[in-house]
Specification:
By secondary structure, the protein is α/β, with parallel strands linked by helices. The protein has 14 helices and eleven strands. Helix 1 crosses helix 13, helix 2 runs antiparallel to helix 12 and helix 5 packs parallel to helix 6. The chain starts with a helix and ends with a helix. It binds S-adenosylmethionine (SAM).
């Protein structure tokens, strides 16, 4: 993926947000930064191969966004202010793949979005507006309450409802893409991750692990809460031991426990995509786990990791400035 491709994705995310102007005045600012583009590009880029390969192998694809937000993120810096669509809207736009040859759409059978804050309602308005645009562009109707379920509440409390819905309503093989993007790992109970793998089985998980908030999250959790959120291999460690663990060691143990929780063969892309600050401290890491065995998945993932990983937040900021016409043009930058 070249810087031009990265710029095309960012442009699309910004243009789509502009199309939805007027739906709502509420935007997510907390925690959005230029490096947020990495996780969103990863998601956008992976959805199509996920759909195509799942469908080709007789799976029906479903998307779950555990921490959906309000639909549009906003970054305000001295030089640049931008708004861009977030994971739920990306999953709808990229989650309908028109196959020209067959004049058919490979798409998710159902989208589940969970948001615990009241601004889930802003997401609902934006999805209604996006659906109208999609109907005009692709002649396909995506309806809230039918194709899309927005659940207001904590993912840890909603997970059973989602799993039961899927298992009760779909009798064919299901392949589920789950996007987990909390502010801190302590917002998702370990048991919730186990349930995904126990009850849904064919799960691909994109887990955006906030390394930058790990130590703060560990400090602010009560002992009882810690027990709920720590994975098995870290559960018996003392607070002292946990606080001395480097973030990367914690994350590797966490990821290994996810692989074990799957209790079937899944592939973990350990190198993932990380973002570091100026003094080379990790801010976050995209952990990706797939149940799909096709070589194409391995190739696509390795390529996107290799291409996105080295991009710094500063470069993403410059690319964004080029996209919105605030900086020299992209050709000079590359
Ligand atoms: C980093 S933002 C997500 C941004 C979103 N993925 C996007 O791309 O626009 C985290 C969101 O997850 C929500 N959240 C965090 N933990 C949650 C949980 N356990 N259940 C439901 N929502 C949660 C927060 O309220 C916040 O809106």
């Amino acid at each position: 993926m070249s810087k031009k491709d990265v710029s095309d994705y960012i442009k699309e995310f910004i243009d789509r947000a502009k199309e939805l102007e007027g739906c709502s005045e509420f935007f997510n600012e907390y925690g959005s930064d230029f490096w947020s583009f990495k996780k969103l590009i990863f998601l956008a880029h992976y959805i199509r191969p996920f759909l195509d390969i799942s469908i080709k192998n007789n799976y029906q694809p479903i998307y779950i966004d555990a921490c959906a937000g309000c639909g549009i993120n906003s970054i305000k810096k001295e030089n640049v202010a931008v708004k861009f669509i977030g994971s739920p809207l990306i999953s709808i736009i990229y989650g309908i793949h028109h196959i020209k040859k067959r004049n058919e759409n490979n798409k998710f059978l159902k989208w589940f979005f969970v948001e615990k804050e009241d601004y889930y309602i802003e997401l609902e308005k934006r999805i209604d507006a996006l659906s109208k645009n999609i109907e005009m562009e692709n002649n396909i109707k995506i309806e809230n309450g039918k194709d899309v379920e927005i659940l207001h509440g904590n993912f840890n409390d909603k997970i059973d409802e989602i799993i039961n819905y899927i298992n009760d309503n779909y009798k064919n093989k299901i392949s589920v893409l789950v996007f987990v993007d909390p502010y801190s790992f302590s917002e998702i109970d370990w048991n919730t991750i186990e349930k995904l793998y126990d009850k849904l089985k064919a799960v691909d998980l994109i887990y955006c692990f906030s390394s930058g908030t790990l130590k703060r999250a560990l400090d602010s959790c009560s002992d009882e809460k810690l027990k709920k959120v720590l994975p098995p291999s870290l559960k018996d460690k003392s607070r002292g031991e946990l606080s001395l663990m480097p973030e990367e060691a914690f994350e590797e143990a966490f990821a290994e426990d996810i692989v074990n929780a799957a209790r079937r063969s899944i592939t973990y892309f350990g190198k993932g995509i990380t973002t570091r600050n100026r003094v080379n401290t990790e801010l976050y890491r995209i952990m990706f786990f797939t149940h799909l065995k096709q070589i194409a998945v391995k190739n696509i993932t390795e390529r996107i990791c290799d291409d996105l990983n080295p991009l710094t937040a500063k470069e993403l900021e410059t690319i964004t400035e080029c996209v919105i016409g605030k900086a020299k043009n992209l050709k000079q930058f590359i």
